[in-house]
Amino acid sequence: MADSQRDFPHSQPDPKNHQDKSSKSDDEINLIDYFTVLWRRKYFIVLGTALPTLVVGLVLFFLPGDYKVTYSYDLGLDEKDSKVMLDQFYGAENGMMLAAKLKEAGFDEYAMAVSKAAIKLEASGTFLLMTVAGSSPEDIKKISSVARDNFEEVLPMCSVKKELGGAIAEFKTKIADIEENKFDLELELEKKKAVLAKLKNLEPEESNKVSDNIILQFEDVRQNSEYLPLSYQIRATDANIVNIEETIFANQKKCEYYNTLQSLNKRLLEELSTDAAQTLSTFHSFLANVLSGNEDVEATGYLKAYIKRIENVMAPTKPVVVKPGVYLVSKGAGRKTATIGAVLLMVTILAAFLLENLPPKQVRAA
Question: Where exactly are the structural domains of the chain?
Answer without folding.
Answer: 2-62+332-365, 67-156+321-328, 178-307
